[in-house]
Write a structure and sequence with these properties.
Keywords: Membrane, Transmembrane, Transmembrane helix. It is a single chain. By secondary structure, the protein is α/β, with parallel strands linked by helices. It folds into two domains: 332 residues, P-loop containing nucleotide triphosphate hydrolases (Rossmann fold), CATH 3.40.50.300; 59 residues. Helices cover 44% and strands 7% of the residues. It has 13 helices and six strands. It has a six-stranded mixed sheet, with helices on both faces. Helix 9 links the parallel strand 4 and strand 5. The radius of gyration is 24 Å and the shape is globular. It starts with 7 loop residues before the first helix and ends in a 9-residue tail after the last helix. The structure holds guanosine-5'-triphosphate and magnesium ion. The site of guanosine-5'-triphosphate (GTP) has 24 residues, from helix 4.
Length: 417
């Protein structure tokens, strides 16, 4: 069924354009390129006016600006075929990995982390946009009307965001909200602990920080580093807004880079709000992108400029009915880079095996408790309980061995290209 025609999207776009062209009307497109610096793809090389960005190697491309918010069927979008191609590549890359990657999303409060995650989820699916990660300003734990907001990691395994039924092992994404622009040793240690997987899902990050501040960094290290590793991070996506008026979170960026390098984790950069702040027309946006890239030391194939699905870009929220492949393509190009296997990815480490065993024991413990409880409260004969218990153990063991065999004995040969 066709969606009612939207009236306000054009108005919203018009006002955005007005901002772009009025606010920066002193900037002439050509002037931007004339100040060429060697090798910097933002600037125009000395080979004349025919210069075009290299779309194959440069993720920070300028394709987003042709987004047609009025389309009613994603197949109408000229980027539809490109999206399908990228989606196939991404899925192919994940099909034969031994375990899904853990991808952490970090950035200053309000930069668009949760919106970006929802955009990634929409891109990887083929139906419509959903708000899996809750958007809004929750990050700064003291600034939300003076309330103390509890900070914890929020993870999104494939089962939570992927609606299709196929065997690709898409990553688990971890929304790391509430990290301030802070390069203190305590913040650095917290990042280290999170990236090593020493912090549990529901654990309150404020408590770890409070512990470190009270007892000192040495005791904090002793307490948390000796822990068992729950979920080691394989890739990091550092998100930052393209808004040149917002402060560059340099202290946070440098700390993330330092810890990621120490742990040998590959990191990527994402600049949001590309619908409003366009490097093509605004020198300040260009400088911001350059500063972001230089602070992280990123090559251009690890940096993407994205427009997130959010009410700002389409006030009618038509993306609740259909996807916009023009928004998905830059995100999927980045995802294809991220999902490309690295040498350490496919191996199960000791922590993973221990996790498996714990999961196994937990199941037994749960069933055992139910059976023992039924013996006391329902006065069931003990021998019946015992036999049921043994049968269930056998069934669980067989099921477990089957899943283990299917899950971890596939050949590792995935490369889409
Ligand atoms: N115009 C525009 N707005 C965006 C974009 N991405 C996010 N926003 C808006 O920015 C605001 C904050 O986005 P969130 O995704 O909640 O930011 P966050 O980083 O998760 O925030 P915290 O969890 O509080 O740290 C929301 O109002 C979004 O609608 C974008 O690409 N373009
Ligand atoms: Mg958020």
């Amino acid at each position: 069924m066709g969606r009612p025609k939207r009236k306000t999207a054009t108005t919203a776009r018009a006002s955005r354009k007005e901002y772009e062209y009025n606010e920066f009307s002193d900037i002439d497109g050509d002037d931007l390129h004339k100040s060429n610096s060697k090798g910097d793809p933002i600037d125009k090389p000395d080979n004349g006016d025919k210069w075009k960005p290299d779309y194959e190697d440069d993720l920070f491309e300028d394709i987003n600006y042709e987004v047609n918010y009025e389309i009613k069927d994603e197949k109408e979008d000229p980027c539809y075929d490109r999206k399908q191609e990228l989606l196939r590549d991404c899925k192919c890359l994940t099909e034969s990995v031994r375990k899904p990657l853990n991808v952490a999303i970090i950035g200053p409060p309000g930069c668009g982390k949760s919106s970006f995650l929802n955009t990634v989820f929409a891109s990887l699916n083929s139906d419509r946009w959903y708000e899996y990660a809750k958007c809004g300003y929750f990050g700064n734990h003291e600034d939300v009307m003076g309330m103390q907001i509890t900070r914890h990691l929020r993870s999104f395994p494939k089962e939570e965001y992927y609606t299709q039924n196929d065997c690709c092992r898409l990553p688990t994404f971890i929304d790391m909200t509430g990290f301030e622009n802070d390069d203190s040793v305590i913040n650095e240690e917290l990042l280290y602990l999170v990236f090593c997987g020493k912090v549990k899902e529901k654990e309150v990050l404020n408590d770890i920080v409070a512990f470190g501040r009270y007892h000192g960094i040495t005791t904090m290290r002793q307490k948390y580093r000796n822990r068992f590793s729950y979920r080691k991070i394989d890739r990091i996506i550092i998100v930052c807004s393209s808004n040149p008026d917002s402060a560059m979170p340099s202290a946070l960026l440098k700390t993330v880079v330092k810890v990621a390098n120490e742990l040998d984790i590959t990191f990527y950069g994402v600049m949001t709000h590309a619908d409003i702040f366009r490097a093509k027309y605004d020198k300040r946006v260009q400088s911001r992108e350059k500063l972001f890239r230089e602070t992280l030391g990123l090559p251009r194939n690890r940096l993407a400029s994205v427009i997130n699905y959010c009410p700002d870009v389409d006030p009618d929220r038509s993306y609740e009915d259909t996807l916009l492949p023009a928004l998905d393509v830059p995100v999927l190009r980045l995802m294809r880079q991220i999902l490309t296997p690295e040498p350490g990815d496919s191996t199960m480490n000791f922590g993973d095996y221990v996790n498996e065993v714990i999961y196994f024991i937990k199941n037994f413990f749960f069933i055992g408790c139910i059976l023992i409880a039924s013996q006391y409260f329902l006065a069931v004969d003990i021998s019946v309980v015992k036999s049921i218990f043994y049968i269930l153990i056998m069934i669980l063991f067989i099921l477990y061995m089957c899943t283990y065999f299917i899950k971890f004995n596939r050949p590792v040969n995935a490369t889409a290209r």
